UniProtKB/TrEMBL annotation, chains A, B:
Keywords: DNA-binding, Transcription, Transcription regulation. It comes from Pedobacter alluvionis. PROSITE patterns: HTH_ARSR_2. Pfam families: HTH_5 (PF01022). SMART domains: HTH_ARSR. This is Transcriptional regulator. Gene3D superfamilies: Winged helix-like DNA-binding domain superfamily/Winged helix DNA-binding domain (1.10.10.10).
DNA sequence: TTGGCATATCGGGAAAAGTCGATATACATT
DNA sequence: AATGTATATCGACTTTTCCCGATATGCCAA
């Protein structure tokens, strides 16, 4: 994954917020039946609702974050759940500490 | 400083390279008379030369990085020297570790 | 198998970023 | 004061990003 793409993914207010929300899903999203926040994540609809942006925009933003390895997704039935990707975030932290 | 602006500053290949070069100036730039790399930094002309981009572009890139608190500048005579800003980089690392 | 949701993808218009050459400014030397 | 050199700013053009509505796809229930 290109480093520039990681920073591009982070250079948007809404996308940064999404990552922040996913860090503490219990605080930022309503209770979810049949899907543990920690293991599975938060579904697209909830994230969209919270963001106030259109469905298509949020879907695209999530895929940008995923391509940058900052989040990962799980499909369950008709829902897609997204959660933080700890490895990707750790790698980013290392880039900053060792290369910049 | 807005977090988004920090990530925008980093979402460009050349600007990332500049930060990398400034991390180890002795390895990346020729000897400089009258200006210690550690204390004062590297002058704009050397950075431009190494980047291959135009003078105006590099001047602007350096000011983008400076506005994001990632580098700082010192004017000495007709030269402006830029160096890494450790505090800003540390703050960035903390943002990633605590907010994302 | 038809209809209804949830999500993804497509096409596009507006705004921002990338990058340049030309010009301005600031300082140093003669 | 005039010239030369280093850097900054301006104006313009091209490319990319933002964000939307419309449409497609995938899955489930009746």
């Amino acid at each position: 994954m290109d480093q520039v793409e990681i920073f591009k993914a982070l250079s948007n207010k809404t996308r940064l917020q999404i990552l922040g929300w996913l860090k503490e899903p219990e605080l930022n999203f309503p209770e979810q039946p049949n899907a543990d926040f920690e293991n599975i994540g938060v579904c697209v609809g909830q994230i969209q609702l919270k963001s106030g942006l259109s469905q298509s925009t949020i879907s695209e933003y999530l895929s940008i974050l995923q391509r940058a390895d900052l989040i990962s997704s799980t499909r369950l039935g008709q829902w897609t759940y997204y959660k933080r990707n700890k490895e990707g975030l750790k790698k980013l932290s290392e880039i900053i500490n060792t290369e910049l």
